[in-house]
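Table 4 source record.
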Amino acid sequence: MLEKYLNKITQGDCLTLLRDIPDNSIDVTFADPPFNLKKKYNSTKDSLALQDYLDWCEQWIGEMVRVTKPTGSIFLHNIPKWLTYYTAVLNKVAHFKHWISWDAPTSPMGKTLQPSHYGILFYAREAKQNKFYEIRYPHKRCRKCGYLHKDYGGKKSLLHPFGPLLSDVWTDIHRVKHNKYRDDHPCQLPIHLLERVILMSTDEGDTVLDPFSGTGTTALAAKRLGRNYIGLELDEEYVNISNSKLRQEEPNSKIGNVWVSFFLNEIATLRDIDWEELSHRYIIPEFIEEVDHTALVAKNGKSHGYTLKKNGLKDLPMFSEIPTEQK
């Protein structure tokens, strides 16, 4: 039953299609539904009456939970207003783990605090069986002086060479703002946001399902990271855009045997358990306190690593030539 949907974007109503997915068959479900804010989708009316919208959401949320494995996770992305309603549904059928605050400032709305984040609800199907990996992201540094933005005071000896563990506030991933990077879709998420979600909740070969696939960001992230994907999408044009992009994508977002997420040719997200295998590719300061003012430098990349579509290995900062005195 699952095979006819696997590694495909299937056109149709998500409720109808979800009911055809077997119980306990999906490793991670991720949904970024219409926000009911009158946005201009091709095939969806984004202006339902309040109760109609909530009733509809309760149906597809219930289906997402049903198809998720006991070891799996459920992620819901939306504005905080709707997430408060979603928690009332999810708390009955799943186990709360986190409300992830994704820092994404928007335009002032007047007579209110300026909205500055989207939320991602993170629930486990079964709390004790949930698959989860701690995530690290790069240290943030001053562009001019190179020192870390955060003052670690007397705890510099505890610094991790690559970067800190991820919290539930994400400030390092930004919205897709420029039209040249956007598809013809009103609510496109950055792919490295989905890659982060996938890395912390799945293994290679696991299956990720998105019932509101849009132009295929979740599927693309899953394919890049060697995971299976199932995309459900109502609109034919969005399905065509997705398939066009997926045909050009390869499962190659990795360095050696380690799957990572890249942004602008730099690692944006890696799993903590994978650092040991990656660490030998870096020149790490003899005294860890020096990480405060000295960024990691990658060794000369003769070993196998990530290959970009348009650029060769030499174009990645991680595999660039290192000055002779540092070798």
